[in-house]
């Protein structure tokens, strides 16, 4: 595709004026860029796709002092995808800088974010999430500024994973859990598996800690005692599932590509209109989802790196 046509399609895409066919062209183009090593090093392909699809506000933040605005150029064309703002902050005698991504999820959207350590975070609609470009040697810290998120944390016994909210600090080594924040310094932490230790924030200080076991939920709220109880986690994290009700395989694949960040190709025309019903958790591994999908519909598949072909 020539530069002029691609620039025109991207402009229509960002302004919600692209046809379904044009949207598919842009999605395919973004997928191709995921396979280019130089782009993998410079850009977060999932963030780019979500920006183009939902116009989320993606910013690189560095706390305090001078601020620089710059635009990213994607691929070989000079098309601005979104603006990044950069700040610098300095600590002690040795100056250092921390780069963070800030994601604002629009109404009616859900976003999948893969962190540098392999951990995956699913953000519910109207959530705000801040995470670093790289983690330091001591810990892996992120900040859920509002909304709801489901975390599937990669195991690293040398560096605990820490989620900060206005009301709590949750520390894990490797597990899956859900956090929902409220407007008045409220946090609801639900553990699916593994183990977490939750500390309560009060006047910018941590007040003791509470350990959670699988299928337990902790509610923290200002001026109230912590409430820990047994819950049905499938009901709590229901927002984190994908449901297909008599949908065609072609329609389902579009959803799976966005949800799991993998490339899926339908090689045979005859399988595109296969109808099926199923549900998957966003925490499921892509390979397991494809396996169940292929098994249920009696089709074959082949993986090549991050790309799977169904036939």
UniProtKB/TrEMBL annotation:
Residues 103-197 form the FecR protein domain. The keyword Iron-sulfur does not apply. Keywords: Membrane, Transmembrane, Transmembrane helix. This is FecR family protein. Residues 242-310 form the Protein FecR C-terminal domain. Pfam families: FecR, FecR_C. The chain crosses the membrane at residues 68-90. GO terms for molecular function: sigma factor antagonist activity. InterPro entries: FecR, FecR_C, Ferrdict_sens_TM.
